[in-house]
Amino acid sequence: MKRLVFLFLAVLFISAGSYGQAPTPSDQNNAEAEVMKAIAKWADAVRSRDMKALDALFADELFITTFDGKTRGKKEELEVLKPNPNVRTVSVENEDVRVKLYGETAVVTALTKMQFVISEKETPVAMRYTAVFVKRDGRWQMVALQTART
Predict the structure, then answer these.
(1) How far is it, in rounded angstroms, from Cα 8 to Cα 6?
(2) pTM for this predicted structure
(3) Which of 15, 103, 132, 134 gives a 20 to 30 Å CA spacing to 9?
């Protein structure tokens, strides 16, 4: 009986230990590459005003704090980014991108430089941002974003 209890506890202890193991460097590199792809898709979708891609990248509970202290959710962000005949996004470039992984959550910081043509006037915009992505159903979705003008 003691042997059975010992065996049960040993199996429980071993399986519990492997459950909480830290990801391997390879897992970390793969996850970071996936997040970088999501960031690139986000930039491309903003540039091309691809509403389907943006809808997929943004979680339903997305919460954004803008550079001027206002807040908005997914619905409002999609409204801001929808195609507009008076606004053309020429480029969206991310620089100084840093990804910190915490399991299925990624915190991203970067500098984004965008070039717009608004009512036929070129308008450059540069912002630092912090974005939080969560991996769901095999894909990374943005759940929070905060921007600051530079």
Answers:
(1) 5
(2) 0.81
(3) 103
Closest CA to 58 of 46, 45, 74, 72: 74
Tens place of pLDDT per residue across the chain (150 aa): 444 333 333 333 333 343 445 557 677 789 999 999 999 999 999 999 999 999 999 999 999 999 999 999 999 999 999 999 999 999 999 999 999 999 999 999 999 999 999 999 999 999 999 999 999 999 999 999 999 999
| Cβ partners under 8 Å of residue 38, min gap 6 | 57, 133, 139, 140, 142
Q: Give the CATH number of domain 24-149.
A: 3.10.450.50
